[in-house]
Amino acid sequence: MRLAVFVDQVFWLDGSRLSTDESYILFPSSFNEFADEIVFIGRLSPTTGRAPYPLKGGRFSLFAMPFYKNLYQFWRNDPRIYWTIAKAVRQEAKTWDALLVCGPNPIGHIIARVCISLGVPVLPVVRQNFIEQMSAHRGLKRWAALAAARILEWDFRRIARDRTVFTVGQEMADEYGRLSGRVHNHFPCLVDSAQFELFSKMSAGKDPTRLINVCRLAPEKGHKYLFAALVELNRRGLRCHVDLVGTGPIEQELRTLAAKLGIAEQVTFHGYVPYGPSLFELYQKAGALVLSSTTEGFPQVVNESLSIGLPTIATRVGGIPSFLTHGETALLVPPQDSSALANAIESFVHDAELRDRLRKRGRALMRDNTLEANRDRILEGIREEIARQRA
């Protein structure tokens, strides 16, 4: 099987070695044991370099798209770029047995339609609520982003009609279930069996008031609600500390906000921490992982924290409530509700039995949901769609 995967990530080439900076690539690249070749469709960086996630082995290739920094820049390109992409795909796609296309994405839509015209099975992948993600923007940019998101979502649903669709989370599974009877709510875990064994030898910190937040510093991650929860907890006489791990466009804005709220000493900005010992050390110092996102697919940091036995407090968004059970494997709160988040943190800090239950049951959940287990479910759906198309 020659499987094409559109991921709209940036790839770097160093000699013959491909790498990328988004961890999601680990999930589709795990299919290589069962495919003759995985063809990733993405953007090739104009500069040589190496990123944190290399593609190991000889069964990978890159079908490079024209480089652009983001979709806003892409829209400003010469309109002929669409024709150029379609022409290139039309020549290459004849050798593909199937296409996984992550969307909505304007380039992904072009590629999908070319494949459909050639009779190549197309399987849409919906990783999160795209409209909710775009609604996190502010000002005029927000309205422009929302308008574009609604058009792209409408178009991607047209592509998905009567096809095998993979979604992250029950919310999007229900939405796309109106269009197809073959919608699979999947869980793209990046923790494989070997990593789980490594994590299971670690343990969370003993101080429940020390929290960790690992994600991009972007509006949709809801840091302002986490900061507001810290302020409310201070009023209740409970002082907590948060280690923020990650970088992003609103870092300076968050530093300013923390100072304005009087919690600057309770928030440590660690910046980018590479996956490995430095990050694991921070995990093991923390009492809980706290995520305050307003929209998500399924954050991979949750897989890591559960495997380590680090309890999770998160918002009910994306695929999170489909996988985690409130009070059993995590504490779940409504998005954009700082009071509910403060209540969850307070109950966690004061209830040792709850902390122990979350550690044990979270780790047990991960034991049955490693990368290999979820990969096999996806591969079964791909094989069934290929067989159906051929029949």
Q: What this model shows, in words?
A:
The chain is an alpha/beta fold and 391 residues long. It has 2 domains: 2-189 and 371-390, Rossmann fold; 193-367, Glycogen Phosphorylase B (Rossmann fold). 44% of the residues lie in helices and 20% in strands. It contains 16 helices and 15 strands. The protein has helices spanning 26-29, 71-75, 80-92, 106-118, 130-134, 139-160, 170-177, 193-200, 223-235, 251-261, 277-285, 300-308, 320-323, 338-350, 352-367, 371-390, and strands spanning 2-14, 17-20, 37-44, 53-54, 60-65, 98-103, 122-126, 165-168, 183-186, 210-214, 241-245, 267-271, 288-291, 312-315, 331-333. Strands 1, 2, 3, 4, 5, 6, 7, 8 and 9 form a 9-stranded mixed sheet that branches. Strand 8, helix 7 (170-177) and strand 9 (183-186) form a beta-alpha-beta unit. It starts with a strand and ends with a helix. The mean pLDDT is 90.
Radius of gyration: 21 Å
* Average residue pLDDT: 90
CATH fold-type name of the largest domain: Rossmann fold
- How many strands, what sense, and barrel or not for the largest sheet? 9 strands, mixed
Terminal-residue CA separation:
17 Å
Count of individual helical segments: 16
List keywords for this structure.
globular; Rossmann fold; six-stranded parallel beta sheet; 2 domains
Strand and helix map with partners:
Layout: E1 2-14, E2 17-20, H1 26-29, E3 37-44, E4 53-54, E5 60-65, H2 71-75, H3 80-92, E6 98-103, H4 106-118, E7 122-126, H5 130-134, H6 139-160, E8 165-168, H7 170-177, E9 183-186, H8 193-200, E10 210-214, H9 223-235, E11 241-245, H10 251-261, E12 267-271, H11 277-285, E13 288-291, H12 300-308, E14 312-315, H13 320-323, E15 331-333, H14 338-350, H15 352-367, H16 371-390
Parallel strand pairs: 1-3, 1-6, 3-5, 6-7, 7-8, 8-9, 10-11, 10-13, 11-12, 13-14, 14-15
Antiparallel strand pairs: 1-2, 2-4
Helix pairs in contact: 3-4, 4-6, 9-10, 9-14, 12-15
